[in-house]
Amino acid sequence: MGYDKPLPILSDENRPFWEACARGELRLQRCDACANVYFPPRPFCPACACRQVSVFKASGKGKLYSYVINHRPAAPGFTPPYAIAVVELDEGPRMMSNIIDCPQTPEALELDMKLEVAFEKLDDKITLPLFRPAKG
Ligand SMILES: [Zn+2]
Fold it and tell me: How far is the CA of 82 from the centre of ligand 1 (A)?
């Protein structure tokens, strides 16, 4: 089955992140010097440039920070309308994602609504971290 959405490009810096997603883990990095938690993965802290950083498994929980609803068929594989969301993780970093299991409407997509990660396996290399409304 073909998948025609644009896929992330794997690099040495982000490969461990995608390998963790394939195992159902959302991974973040934390600076050992200043405790800054950041995303996307990189070998040094974006706040203080320290290279002593640790990888840890995130809770996978967050909230809807902002979104736009795209009504135009801008990217192949996405059927409009769909929301391009910015999710603020409980650990602090924000990441772009899509919200699933939820109507793609302003009525359903409430800012600050609680979300949890849901992994969508695309192929052997890429499993996308998407978000859905948290249960309970
Ligand atoms: Zn730092």
Answer: 35
* Element holding 115 (H helix, E strand): strand 114-121
pLDDT (tens digit per residue) in 28-85? 999 999 999 999 999 999 999 999 999 999 999 999 999 999 888 766 667 788 899 9
How distant is the alpha carbon of residue 70 from its chain centre? 18
Q: How far away, in angstroms, is 53 Cα from ligand 1 center? A: 8
- Please check whether residue 130 is in contact with residue 99, taking contact to mean a CB–CB distance below 8 angstroms: yes
Q: Is 116 helix (H, G, I), strand (E, B) or coil?
A: strand
The alpha carbon of 51 and the centre of ligand 1 are apart by a number of angstroms equal to 8
Task: List CB-based neighbours of ion ligand 1 within 5 Å.
Answer: 31, 33-34, 36, 45, 47-48, 50
Whether residue 27 contacts residue 19, with contact meaning beta carbons closer than 8 Å, is answered with: no
pTM attached to this predicted model: 0.88
Q: How far is the CA of 64 from the centre of ligand 1 (A)?
A: 26
Structure tokens at 31: 């600076």
